[in-house]
Give the backbone structure.
Amino acid sequence: MLSRTADHLFWLSRYTERAENTARMLDVNYQTSLLPQSAAVAQVGWQGLLSISELLPSYTARHGHVTPASVLEFMVKDEGNPSSIVSCLRAARENARAVRGSLTTEVWETQNQTWLEVNRMLKAGEFERDPGQFFEWVKFRSHLSRGVTVGTMLMDEALYFLRLGTFLERADNTARLVDVKFHAVQSDFFGAASEKDQEYDFYHWSAILRSVSGFEIYRKVYRDVIKPERVADLLILRADMPRSLHASMNEVVANLAMVANDQSAETLRRAGKLRAELQYGSIDEILATGLHAFLTQFLDRVNELGIRISRDFLIPAPA
């Protein structure tokens, strides 16, 4: 496969996944903001959202003070923000258009329709009327894109590069979410004793689980009250949780193996080593050595994998 084609496929799926992840985080923050809470707690939530995406400096430069309305505008509609939902969907569609011949008609039409529809919805003011409904729509279109891809594409390198981009992006995003949300919990809330703080705990962890469609899964797996260490275990180490770090790295390694070439052996080894650490790790060890340090190192290694994948497969060789 031409490296340029592989590059477009890889980034098509990354941008689609990024739009969905952004919608998930915004939806949870928006729903949480409707609950009774102090202005300070709400402020931490919106700032945390910008921190997850490493967008706080660029947001501050454009908008100054953090307000819910401005953050939503910046993260959904601002075409000057490359990580906004509209920017991600545009980039996904442009990458799809560039490799139209490598996609099935159904995959291309799904991407194109998503782009046309999001523009219509934003112009019609549907986002402002019901943000929650808009975020559900973004998630649905991402699910549809993945389903159509797996259901209609030939199982060859094009599909493997699409899947590789999806799960590398998902691993990165879940790690950011867990890191920022655990970091945001003040020590007086973590395992809090008072009834009021326990209530805060419940809503906080429920929100994190809902942002990765993990609330019902948590109840099924643990059948217990929501505990921070179990939330961390579910989102980091459980291979049967679709959006966990372990599940994402299983897919990265599997798809990387399918497209392996002469120069990708070291990249595959590093991906396999990272997956093995999740496979044989224990949440008690991770918490004892420091969750923030573990996740920071994980993000660095995922970022390095992305760079190595670009070098091994995606950058055209000099003429």
Notes: The longest helix spans residues 3-33. Confidence is low (pLDDT under 50) at residues 186-195. The chain has 16 helices and no strands.
